[in-house]
Amino acid sequence: MSVDLKKRFDRIVDILIQLQSKRVVRAQELADRFDVSLRTIYRDIKSLEQAGVPLIGEAGTGYSIMEGYKLPPISFSKEEALSFVATEKLTQKFLDKESAKQYSSALLKIKAILKSHDKDLLSTVENQIIMQQQSMPPFLEQVPHALSSTLESISHKKQLFVKYQGINDEEGKERTLEPIGIYHEGGFWYIVAYCLIRQDFRQFRSDRILEAGLTENNFSKEHISIAAYLKSHKNTERPKTTVKLIMGKKVANHLKWERKHYGFESERIIDDQVEMTFQSKDIAIEFPRWMMMFADFVTILEPAELKQNLKNILEQAIENTNK
């Protein structure tokens, strides 16, 4: 079998798996996933039809497999089987207890169809992977279903009741939400939802949710997608300030772990030093307070305002220690 023919065969098999995993799959979605033209996808779809797979093409929507058509069981490669174990460990750390429990249940069903030697391989490896828990867990113990309830709310378009304690709130406040999606950033999940009290979209950090529960009430209206929300939210962010720092290479290595969160854009090597450029959202508080951890090893090239802000914070700290 030629290389090109094998690539096409593998792609057609993968397309079949995609069709099994979703009710409707768009041709453009397949073209983007496999990095080929729409014409190539149409040709591959035709090959599946000629092979006897009963596909339904919906104009302007996509393709689906006819209801009731039974496909042979899927087999997994050794590498795919091993990835299940790593993913299960990740769910235990990053998902709420209910979601992690559901994933483990699904994984048991997947393991049931594995070959015996693959089952032994998974049993050997799963005890060798340990995920240390975060110092600040993404969900509170009293709401082990916060994420799963949110996902259920989104899928069924049912309103979600939460008690939420914002960073400046002394106690939790009751909210009724219509979630449009979730995203993960900085170790926490954020629920993006239309708040019926605020009559606008808000973001709710997962570890600040004290209670959560699905209601029987339907969404009050149709909402934009989370992708559209995040795009519009990004466009309305306050102007950013260019920051340039210079430091030794050893110090630069330590900054790599967090710098993206503070607007890192690029770096260049100058002899034995590294110059880093940032686009900061907040040079008044956030950026200078981050810099305090390594301020004695770094020189601020620009802006002058950041130098003064850092100086003010340090002077206040010194004053406080002398009291």
Automatic annotation (TrEMBL):
- Domain of life according to the entry: Bacteria
Tell me the SUPFAM superfamilies matching this sequence. Answer: Winged helix' DNA-binding domain
Under InterPro entries, the record lists:
CBASS_pafABC_assoc_protein, DeoR_HTH, HTH_11, PafC-like, WH-like_DNA-bd_sf, WH_DNA-bd_sf, WYL_dom
The answer to whether UniProt assigns keyword Membrane to this entry is no
Print the keywords alphabetically.
Transcription, Transcription regulation
Q: Name one GO molecular function term.
A: DNA-binding transcription factor activity
HTH deoR-type domain boundaries: 8-63
Q: Where is the signal peptide?
A: none
Task: Answer yes or no on keyword Transcription regulation.
Answer: yes
The name of this protein is: WYL domain-containing protein
Q: Which organism is it from?
A: Sphingobacterium zhuxiongii
